[in-house]
Amino acid sequence: MTTAKAVASRKEILITGFGGQGIVLAGQIVGRAASLGDHKESTLTQSYGPEARGGACSAQVIISDDAIHYPYVRSPDVLVCMSQGGFDKYAPLVREDSILLTDQDLVRAESVNTPEFFTIPATRMAEELGRKMMANIVMVGFLTAISKALSLEAARDAVLDSVPKGTEKLNTTAFTKGYDYGVAVLKGRQKKAEGRKGAQA
To answer: What pLDDT is stored for residue 5 in this prediction?
Structure first.
């Protein structure tokens, strides 16, 4: 396999937020979906701030068609920020071709270095479902739709396998809300782009 193809087959995903948001669980779901559902190689590393709840934390997931020799994200293909602190810390790593996803009610993103910037009111959507704690699952759905790093089926199955028993139905609804929101956002962008092309023609 050529080096170019090996690079193209690899996705580095960094999910960041604060303790209590389920950031590590989100990373576990993404890694599980990639390995068990999509049959790719994946690694997960996690880090916590000085406090478990409320402190900064992150989950780093690498997905590849080939063996992964270094499990840490150096330059994220996808950066997911669910807190202002996480955005402030990791936004400088974003490249022009990176995808940036944020919780629009928790993160004020200024001077973003990529056109591939998408926001979702994940926490608000979870609150509307009656469980603020499911914002991470909403975000995983959004990530699945926007990044295309995972298949829909693998991601949905990984959610069901990872959440507490008895909450599967509610978490599936949260995942679907995030996924559908992402699909709608992409369609909206496509229509705008087509409109601009039509105006220029």
So the answer is: 36
155 backbone dihedrals φ, ψ, rounded to 5°: -65, -45
- Which amino acid is present at 161? D
Q: What's the whole-model pTM score?
A: 0.90
Query: Would you list the domain boundaries of the chain?
Result: 3-200
Query: How distant, in Å, are the alpha carbons of 84, 97, 145 from that of 88?
Result: 6, 19, 25
Phi and psi (nearest 5°) for 56? Answer: -70, 145
d(CA 72, CA 199): 44
- Can you give the pLDDT at residue 201? 54
- Find the DSSP H helices in 91-134: 122-128
Q: Euclidean distance between the first and final Cα of the chain, in Å?
A: 41
Whether residue 60 is predicted with pLDDT greater than 50 in this model: the reply is yes
- Residue 58: strand pairing partners: 16, 47
Structure tokens at 104: 């629009």
Pick the CATH number of 3-200 from 3.30.750.24, 3.40.920.10, 3.30.1330.40, 3.90.600.10: 3.40.920.10
Sign of the C-alpha dihedral, residues 107, 116, 73, 158?
positive
Q: Measure the CA–CA gap between 98 and 115, rounded to whole angstroms.
A: 8
